[in-house]
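Input record, target 12 of the design panel.
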């Protein structure tokens, strides 16, 4: 009998928390009934492999990108529902039981996102301004999604954290090629692909995942300054360009117009961020439409959180004065790019 739930754990270079992540899934050291656990990793560790094998975990080596790892895991898994887990995050004990219950009660459900709490590198709960908890639960039909609702979901935290996402496997199977091309923003990519099918999307405020933040976090390194610490701009620029690559690929593979347009807006905001916040300048990656799209993004959800997320921290101060000043600054940038 095939398992109902597959836990797909991806580990890229960071081995220090992988065992802890897998242990958060096990019950008394064993894989829960009607479940399977797959680990896809890009490093060798014989001792860790021995422990994983003894616990009944399937191990796959993959030296490719995060998209390659996700695609391999999805090709190998057999569960009806796939729960993603990053190597440094944790599931709470009731996670798999709750996911099974929610999907079983809703046969048309294709995507489920649960709430999460942030923990530091020691595992202690911390409050992190950059990652606000989801405070509301809601259900949406994929066919009813509008651009304004997608922007609202993004900046209210409903799309953040891959380890909070569970998807019906059959919703992702048609997109294995696209998944293999993912280079970044995995959480948003999985949502966009699942939402491209017909079905129900559920966003739950109940906390079932612990999301680890700290200096090790790639998202944190790529998207935010580290309290005055030295920033590796080459690494940061490379990471941001991988995100735009993913979003641009999604635009070509997603047919539903609001989703395609949403990916376009996010890609433009990342390009603008790359252009503005880096000590280097990348005018070749910025198009006049990128600033115009960013203006539209802000008009759909004009909040300080959007501005900060795009990395326009110097504009956040202006926004506290009036929204007019913010739009004026962006329009000035837009006109300057057009004249280049």
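The sequence produced for target 12 reads:
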């Amino acid at each position: 009998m095939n398992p109902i739930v597959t836990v797909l754990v991806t580990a890229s270079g960071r081995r220090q928390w992988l065992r802890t992540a897998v242990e958060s899934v096990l019950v008394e050291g064993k894989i829960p009934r009607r479940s399977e656990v797959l680990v896809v990793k890009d490093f060798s560790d014989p001792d860790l492999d021995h422990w994983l094998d003894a616990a009944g975990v399937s191990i796959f080596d993959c030296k490719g990108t995060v998209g390659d790892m996700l695609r391999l895991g999805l090709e190998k898994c057999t569960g009806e529902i796939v729960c993603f887990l990053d190597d440094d995050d944790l599931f709470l004990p009731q996670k798999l039981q709750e996911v099974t219950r929610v999907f079983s009660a809703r046969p048309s459900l294709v995507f489920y996102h649960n709430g999460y709490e942030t923990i530091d590198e020691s595992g202690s709960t911390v409050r992190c301004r950059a990652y606000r908890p989801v405070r509301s639960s809601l259900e949406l039909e994929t066919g009813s999604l509008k651009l304004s609702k997608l922007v609202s979901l993004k900046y209210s935290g409903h799309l953040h954290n891959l380890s909070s996402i569970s998807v019906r496997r059959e919703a992702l199977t048609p997109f294995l090629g696209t998944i293999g091309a993912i280079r970044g923003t995995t959480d948003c990519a999985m949502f966009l692909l699942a939402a491209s099918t017909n079905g129900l999307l559920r966003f739950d405020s109940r906390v079932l995942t612990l999301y680890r933040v700290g200096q090790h976090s790639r998202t944190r390194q790529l998207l935010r300054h580290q309290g005055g610490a030295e920033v590796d701009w080459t690494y940061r620029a490379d990471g941001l360009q991988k995100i735009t690559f993913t979003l641009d690929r999604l635009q070509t593979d997603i047919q539903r117009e609001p989703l395609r347009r949403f990916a376009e807006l996010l890609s433009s905001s990342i390009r603008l961020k790359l252009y503005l916040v880096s000590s280097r300048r990348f005018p070749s990656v910025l198009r006049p439409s990128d600033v115009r799209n960013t203006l539209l993004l802000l008009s759909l959800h004009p909040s300080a959180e959007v501005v900060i997320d795009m990395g326009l921290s110097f504009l956040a101060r202006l926004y506290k004065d009036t929204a007019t000043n913010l739009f004026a600054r962006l329009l000035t940038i837009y006109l300057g790019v057009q004249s280049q």
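The chain has 15 helices and nine strands.
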